[in-house]
């Protein structure tokens, strides 16, 4: 969707690994913002984007290096509020007449404490205890502030930790308020957008109306096909498209035989029977499991599934007359990651998308109604569209499905055992009220058999591993600290209710060094 009409804030990205967190903080305040690499932000871009305020992100470079990144000089003549963070502070000072130094005593990494020098509206709600915990990550620091600026906060290794030119609404901090290690950082962003005059007009109700209008304008009378996986992104995209264009939408649900217990029936039933969408249920279980027979290498399994998915999707899509558009559940993080910090934009959406490469191959145009949204905003839009909470709040499920939760060779017997064990495990989590606390939980069936005793008899059955992690974005994760009582109760249920398993383990590996999935 193009031509966002909401009040807009521009984030100029200098390469920080946490720039996306700035955007998430702002979106939580109902402020629409976009992230753009500094190279792309020209004078013409600034004039066209017409931001109400600008934030300069952190970054790995040093402003003392010749040729290091800068903000457009014209930015400081636009008469709009500007907030510089870490590297953003340093380039502000350099460009406006201050100085930055490198060397011994200029670095500060990790937790630090800032103490106030004088009052500043940006810091309303701060310093209740005379100091504020922040997260520092800088090798250089400001040694001389620019004309017009004053000091409002200091830390042991950052004498100008908080500076501002109040007359021009320029603010600069050496720390990172966007990370959770700065506990009161959200309040600083709240104050900044208030000072910038934002009214908080970025709501899912408003987005829904604007997105529907944009879809109608883009699609016209043409037909759209959508790959429906049953995950949050594709489900919300399908619901939004259906509200916009009705019967011009056809969804294709590819069932590869690697889904969870009753998943195909639930997904197809909800969209076809309860939401009246046109859904093609492509049951290709025999094809997928036949091609996977005898395969044990995880990458080989992934490649087989990926290729077959594209082939099957195209087969069914070719049966839809007058199809001109392919719908994808591309999210804003995907868009950001498709633009390299070091250069120009990439036209290739990340390879994890199941329908990647299909638009060109099939001669279709893309419609991506969620490309301005983060994951939590997609869930909020799903609520706005009336999707059941059971679908909106689902844990992530990988495209290859149970294939990567079945290390080694895949067999129908192992898949059936795995489905039942996973269903018991998730049922336990829900019964104990833990589902929404966990980022992702699943069961993996191990490629070994172990000796056990049931009743008076010897068993020689499979072992399974339970996995549950907490995470913000899936990039890092830690295991969920279940009680021993929960684990014991769950293991007993699985062994009693799932023939074929006689041993249950719990995976307590974090990411890194492990991954969330087993393959």
Descriptive account of the structure:
The chain is built from 15 helices and 20 strands. The chain has helices spanning 19-28, 43-49, 87-95, 185-195, 204-219, 232-245, 263-274, 285-292, 298-317, 332-337, 358-362, 375-384, 389-392, 412-431, 484-497; strands at 8-13, 32-37, 53-56, 82-85, 99-101, 108-116, 132-138, 141-144, 150-155, 158-165, 170-173, 223-227, 249-255, 278-283, 323-327, 365-367, 440-454, 457-470, 478-479, 501-506. It has 3 domains: 8-195, Class I glutamine amidotransferase (GATase) domain (Rossmann fold), CATH 3.40.50.880; 204-392, HUPs (Rossmann fold); 411-506, GMP Synthetase, Chain A, domain 3 (2-Layer Sandwich). Helices cover 32% and strands 24% of the residues. The chain has 519 residues and is of the alpha/beta class. Residues 340-355 have low confidence and may be disordered. The strands form 4 sheets. It has a 9-stranded mixed sheet, with helices on both faces. A 5-stranded parallel sheet has the order 14-13-12-15-16, sandwiched between helices. Strands 17, 18, 19 and 20 form a 4-stranded mixed sheet that branches. The two termini are 35 Å apart. β9 and β10 form a beta hairpin. It is globular, with a radius of gyration of 26 Å. α5 crosses α6, α6 packs across α12 (375-384) and α14 crosses α15 (484-497).
How much helical structure, as a percent, in the residues?
25-40%
Summarize model confidence as the mean pLDDT: 87
Number of DSSP strands? 20
Number of helices: 15
Identify the CATH architecture of the largest domain.
3-Layer(aba) Sandwich
Classified in CATH, the superfamily of the largest domain is: HUPs
Q: Supply the number of structural domains.
A: 3
Low-pLDDT stretches are 340-355
Structural class: alpha/beta
Highest CATH level, the class of the largest domain = Alpha Beta
The percentage of residues in β strands lies in 15-25%
